[in-house]
Design goal:
By secondary structure, the chain is of the alpha/beta class. It has helices spanning 2-22, 137-143, 177-187, 206-218, 235-242, 272-280, 295-303, 327-336, 341-346, 350-355, and strands at 32-43, 48-57, 60-65, 73-78, 83-86, 88-93, 123-133, 151-157, 192-198, 222-225, 248-249, 283-284, 372-385, 391-405, 408-412. It contains ten helices and 15 strands. The strands form two sheets. Strands 1, 2, 3, 4, 5, 13, 14 and 15 form an eight-stranded mixed sheet that branches. The protein has a seven-stranded parallel sheet with strand order 6-7-8-9-10-11-12.
Length: 429
């Protein structure tokens, strides 16, 4: 009798395994929680660019495959005609929002609470670009990072007080590589993903060099916002002598030649050493912001093949309602400058994930966290602004239809993930 039961059990388990393999039911008998059905998946990290279904179990990607059966799915969302991508990573924001009236970005009004601006644009992860330093990062974590649905990572400012004000950012005595590296390695590894150098008025690369030393000690990249010295410091020297491969130059397409050297010269040509720096491994970040994206730099650069590796917003109060708008609008700008959609998505998913050494993010790989964006690609006549308020006309525009963060729907523009009001049971109406 025991032998018969054992044989029967082996047959049942074998049939179940076969059904799992064929996609009829998930492994271990679990039901699919959300099934995105019929969309076009673009996942550069997994080399997927094709019509696929995406199945979510709890907070993880269960399967990405064609024609996943819907019978065992608690919620099926029809995304036909839409593009399904990993949740976007915005690698340059300022999220240390607070009420210190004397502050610029650190715990101040110019920074923004991210949840109100991320999900509606398909963003699920942001990286704060140096708002906090080692002296006040704990407050940033408790006040903002721990309270946000958006995943918040950070570059730690080389200045201990962070971006409290322009004068404080000049304090060389507060640029302590050892303390910065200690906070990254010992206290917040995985949350602090790099070091930030910014807004230095000095006549040399002292601040950059201190940041690079901290990056070396902590084994993380450095993001540099070089500028504000007159005359501007030479960026060829910055790229070739001070930064390491994997370090990041932000505000790539800014056009303020009185404050910083720009990539495109007065004749509209990209300077040759820019290409050499990119080959060397310097990572170029858009960092659009309220003053750092000009068509005069961006369009000639793209036309001549110099394309920023990472597309990011520099979200703060000075950019949210101006030319930047949001990440979906920003990606649309590059789409209308001629980049393929797959390339645009790569620069807001895989590339920033690699830059910050968090390749567990920015992917729809099976078993990864279920951070997903679903976009419509609208066709028509659209205007896109730079920071001067000048317009480039375009014919395509991305719009975030649905955003899923850790397996939960957090943005649903047109209710595609929700039942009709009159289809609910009477007790629920």
């Amino acid at each position: 009798m025991k032998k018969c039961c054992s044989s029967f059990l082996r047959i049942v388990l074998s049939l179940q395994a076969l059904l799992c393999f064929q996609g009829t039911i998930p492994s271990y008998g679990q039901a699919i929680d959300i099934l995105l059905k019929g969309g076009h998946v673009i996942d550069p990290a997994s080399n997927i660019d094709a019509p696929m279904d995406v199945a979510i179990v709890k907070d993880k990607i269960f399967r990405v495959a064609p024609d996943i059966p819907a019978e065992n799915s608690a919620k099926v969302i029809d995304v036909r005609g839409m593009y399904v991508t990993p949740g976007l990573i915005d690698m340059h924001v300022h999220a240390f929002h607070g009420t210190d009236m004397g502050s610029y970005i650190t715990d101040g009004w110019d920074a923004l609470p991210p949840d109100g601006f991320t999900f509606r644009a398909g963003v699920t992860t942001v990286v704060d670009a140096g708002s906090a330093g080692w002296r006040n990062f704990r407050k940033f974590k408790e006040q903002t990072i721990d309270r946000s649905q958006t995943r918040i990572l950070a570059f730690l400012n080389i200045v201990g007080s962070g971006m409290y004000g322009r004068f404080e950012e000049q304090d060389v005595n507060d640029m302590n590589p050892v303390m910065v590296a200690y906070m990254i390695n010992r206290l917040f590894p995985g949350i602090i993903v790099g070091v930030k150098s910014a807004h230095y008025w000095g006549p040399d690369f002292t601040q950059v060099d201190r940041a690079v030393e901290a990056g070396r000690l902590a084994n993380v990249p450095v993001m540099v916002d070089l500028g504000e010295h007159h005359p501007p410091l030479p960026i060829e020297e910055l790229f070739m002598k001070h930064l390491r491969p994997g370090d990041i130059w932000t505000h790539t397409y800014a056009n303020a030649p009185q404050d910083r050297e720009v990539p495109v010269d007065e004749n509209g040509k990209v300077k040759p050493f820019i290409f050499e720096a990119q080959k060397r491994g310097i990572i170029f970040d858009v960092g659009h912001g309220g003053g750092a994206f000009h068509w005069k730099q961006a369009i000639p650069s793209v036309q001549q093949g110099f394309i920023a590796d990472v597309i990011s917003s520099d979200l703060h109060t000075g950019s949210m309602n101006s030319g930047m708008k949001d990440m979906a609008n920003l990606l649309s700008k590059f789409l209308n400058m001629g980049l393929p959609l797959q390339d645009v998505i790569k620069r807001a998913t895989l590339n920033p994930a690699k830059a910050i050494k968090r390749t567990d993010l920015g992917t729809l790989g099976e078993g990864s966290v279920a951070d997903i964006a679903v976009f419509s690609l609208r066709e028509g006549s659209f205007g896109f602004l730079d920071v001067r308020g000048t317009k480039m006309q375009g014919t395509q525009k991305l719009e975030a239809e649905l955003t899923i963060r850790s397996g939960k729907i957090v943005w649903d523009l047109n209710g595609i993930g929700s039942p009709a009001w009159d289809a609910m049971p009477s007790a629920s109406k």
